[in-house]
Amino acid sequence: MKQKITVAVSGLNNIDSPGPGIPVIRALKESKDFDVRIIGLSYETLEPGLYMHDLVDKSYQIPFPGAGIDSLLERIYYIHNQEKLDVIIPNFDAELANFMKIEPLLKSDLGISMFLPTQEQFDERHKANLFEFGEKHGVDVPFSKMMFNTSEIPVISKEFSYPMVVKGKFYDAYIAYNAEQVANYFNKISAKWGLPIIIQEYVFGSEVNVTALGDGNGNAISAVPMRKLFITDKGKAWAGISLDDEELVNIANRVISSSKWRGGMELEFIKTAENKYYLLEINPRFPAWVYLAAGCGQNQPEALVKLALGQNVPPYKAYDIGKMFIRYSFDMIVDLKEFEQISTIGEL
Is residue 18 within 8 Å of residue 236, measured between CB atoms? Predict the structure, then answer.
């Protein structure tokens, strides 16, 4: 008999740069132990997940992260009064700070569980701090520096050789081949995501990623590596394949063990021709390709829900190698009344 639970999930923007929400929901719907009712949490009225009624049972708009925790709390209290939430899984970097702050209150007042990184873990894996993170936890990381103004470009150009990588603090990364491109990317990214901008040493090689789950006590519950087979112009994987790469899994396990990571995470690496791994980013939540892990036999979203509910979760022992994911897009036909309802009432 499956346990009936209600789980709220954000990240429903299943577009060309997709959020993790829909893959997380698909994995939860395939759970062997839970009968899951899904509540979608959206920021925009055109997030496709709002209208995927076969996956999302009910949706609510929530305030943008910039509105602060009071507005978020008020909205979550209202949603919980309607739906009796058991677990919330936030899937955007930018919203995690607010959810981490209210996690204890939601648990004590409403009995809503989450399983998120600690503030210290969230901060130390930040792109601006990643080089120091690598030194602390014994992982190779390309040299990087923060940049706050385009007037710093001449100094940056002396410390880094071209090409170099220009990154936003939350999202977006571009390869710059000259000072003019650095300035252009600085302005483009900062206008969208704010400061600082991170300048990172460019390392040539193939992109390999790991989606992983830590139990907060230093144990890696799951780690599934993937190599990108097709990359969009936004740098997102549109196809990938699970890898037989013991060293990559060992690095992920070492990071989780050393940092005592709590929750889902994605580790992004470059593997050089000399088989050396450089950690480029740690995303503090599941990636948009996390459904591949479920397809390989490690249902990470299901395991995260179990951890959130205080259940015992033994580490996965194996995963299927050579499984591929291939993204696709299709047109949904949506009644205007549904769009009007989410736009005006904030519920669907």
Answer: yes
Q: Do the domain assignments include residue 41? A: yes
Lowest mean pLDDT among 104-108, 227-231, 291-295: 227-231
pTM given for the model: 0.90
- Produce one character per residue of 251-284: b if its CB has 16 or more CB atoms within 10 Å, e if not: bbbebbeebbbbbbbbbbbbbeeeeebbbbbbbb
**Which residue range forms the structural domain that includes residue 81?**
3-114+331-344
